[in-house]
Structure formats: C-alpha cells, structure tokens
Write a structure and sequence with these properties.
The protein is 68% helix and 1% strand. It contains 14 helices and two strands. It has a two-stranded antiparallel ribbon. Strand 1 and strand 2 form a beta hairpin. The longest helix has 28 residues. The radius of gyration is 18 Å and the shape is globular. The structure holds geranylgeranyl diphosphate (GRG). The site of geranylgeranyl diphosphate has 17 residues, from helix 5, helix 9, helix 10 and helix 11.
Length: 300
C-alpha cells in the first residue's frame, strides 16, 4: 500500500464542523475530478446533483474509519466519492414526482425541477455505474476491489437501500409495528452508513471482527441519523434542512408509535448503543465517536 498522505486541513483541528468541512472539501475536489465535464445536459445535471453542498457525513465516516488503519487518503477519498455518487443518485431518485415529489434538495431546486424528470432519472442511472467504476479503478488488489464492489452492491440493492425505499413508499410491507419501521430505517439509511464505516477496515486489511464492529457501529449511527431526520421533519425548518419540512407526517416513522419526546430518548439510546460497540476497541476512535455526538447535540 502506498505511503499515507496526511489531510492537514482535517487533522489540524479538534472541532468536528471544521473536520467535516475539511473532508467535504477534499471529497468534493475528488468528485469534481471523477465526474465528466459538463459538455452535455446529462453531464451538467450529474455535476449539479453531486456537487451541490451535501454534508458529506458518509465521507467523513469513511475518512474516520480509514484513519484507524492508516489507509492513504488518495484511496479513502475515492471510496468516499463512490459513496457520495450513490448518495446523490438516491436523493435525485427519491425527489422524483413518482417518489417523494420534492422541489428542493440541499437548498436548491431538485434535479428534476432544474433539468426535467427524464434527465433526473437518467442522472441516477448514470451515477450508479460511475460509483462502481471508481471502485473498480482503485490501485488495490482485485480481492479488495471485489469485496468493496460486492458489499456496495448488497447494501444498495433489492435487499438494502432499494428495499428500504419500497417500504418507505408503501409498496412493500409490513409497516404496522415499530420493529417494521426500524427495519425500514435500517435498510433505507443504516446499511449505507454501515458500509461507510466498514470500508476503512476493508481497505486496511483489518480482521473480520474489526469489519463487523465498524459495520455495526455505522448501522446504529445511520438508524439514529434517520430518526433525527424524522424528528427534524417535525421540529426543524426548511432553511436549516435545505428541503421542505412537515412532509413525512403520512410516512412510516417512529412518530407513528411514540411522541417527539420519546423519539428523542430512542435517538439517545441508539447513539449510546453505537458508542458502546466501540468501547472495548483499542484503537483511537474519537473521530468516529464525533458523529454520534453531533447527532445527539441536535436534539438537546
Ligand atoms: C431512490 C433507491 C432510492 C432510495 C432513496 C436516500 C433515500 C433513499 C431517500 C432520501 C430521503 C431520506 C430522508 C432518506 C433518509 C436518509 C437521509 C437522512 C438522507 C439524507 O442524507 P443527508 O442528510 O444528505 O446526509 P446530504 O444532502 O447531506 O448528503
């Protein structure tokens, strides 16, 4: 593996917002280089949908887990970028009139509002293979690349993200119990977070146990993040969220089973469970633990 390159912007500070911004800047430069030039409407719309100011939390998790295993940033940034391409596709498709019908995304007109529905569908269709191409092109062993590709295919496929979206749209059940909603949230949000935290261990050639621990941590954090999103839909505002609020009242959220105060307790206990997973861990995990802390802060 090539020599580790430091990320000075990120490591200089102890503050999560600054570190998050540092990762975001670096992953955006990587995404910029990986996306096609805007010479066609499709390519312009792809760039619009990817380079439009996401928080890049999943990228931060890739960076934080990779830093545990001294993975070179030239590698981890590309894996983070692949995840952001998938994240952007899922948001573009989620916003479509036939899905969530959202006009606003990341504070700007959603892709179909800016470029039309046909283009938005094709933007999503084009971002998925680009993500896999980025992983396939990594200067790593075929074994590691296949593991990264296969695991990503699993988490975003018909037993992962897409299954979660089917349930979210009410096209597939069940949704009547609290456990059903937790499963929906695991699929829709948790598994991609789990992948983002596991990849550091995969890239670092870590043990199966490390992979499992980091994946479980990310899964819990993702579930708490989704619960926070549900809570903010009721208690947040459009300016902070960059999308319309109050749209999820007819959706399958934990608020169908508990009030907002109880949801806050559930978010806190899920974050606690995530933190506990890392407590016996001998490595330095404070960068990872900053994300549950960041989520928890938003409900206090
Ligand atoms: C279309 C197959 C398919 C799936 C869509 C991602 C998704 C599934 C739906 C988006 C709606 C939503 C609220 C999903 C929950 C996960 C979530 C909170 C996504 C938004 O992630 P952020 O806040 O977004 O990290 P940024 O814009 O920062 O990347």
């Amino acid at each position: 593996m090539e020599k580790s390159q430091p990320l000075p912007l990120i490591l200089k500070t102890d503050s999560l917002p600054e570190r998050l911004l540092g990762v975001a800047r670096e992953v955006e430069a990587t995404l910029d280089s990986l996306l096609p030039q805007p010479t066609t409407q499709l390519h312009e719309a792809m760039r619009y949908s990817v380079l439009n100011g996401g928080k890049r939390i999943r990228s931060y998790l890739v960076w934080a887990s990779s830093s545990l295993f001294d993975v070179p940033s030239s590698i981890s940034l590309k894996v983070a970028a692949a995840i952001e391409l998938i994240q952007a596709y899922s948001l573009v498709h989620d916003d479509l009139p036939s899905m969530d019908n959202a006009d606003l995304r990341r504070g700007k007109p959603s892709c179909h509002k800016a470029f039309g529905e046909e283009t938005a569908i094709l933007v999503g269709d084009a971002l998925i293979p680009r993500a896999f191409e980025v992983l396939a092109d990594l200067p790593l062993s075929a074994e590691v690349r296949i593991e990264l590709i296969k695991k990503l295919a699993e988490v975003i496929g018909s037993q992962g993200l897409v299954a979660g979206q089917m349930r979210d749209l009410g096209q597939e059940g069940p949704q009547s119990k609290r456990e059903d909603v937790l499963e929906l949230q695991r699929l829709k949000t948790g598994v991609l977070f789990g992948y983002a935290t596991e990849v550091g261990a995969i890239l670092g050639g870590a043990s199966l146990e490390d992979c499992q621990t980091l994946r479980s941590f990310g899964l819990k954090v993702g579930q708490a993040f989704q619960m926070l999103d549900d809570w903010l839909d009721v208690h947040g505002n459009e300016a902070d969220m960059g999308k319309a609020c109050g749209k999820d009242t007819s959706k399958y959220t934990l608020l169908n089973f508990m009030d907002a105060e109880a949801l806050k307790v559930k978010i806190s206990s899920t974050l606690e469970e995530a933190n506990l997973l890392l407590s016996p861990y001998e490595r330095k995990v404070e960068h990872l633990l900053a994300i549950p802390a960041y989520i928890g802060k938003q409900i206090t």
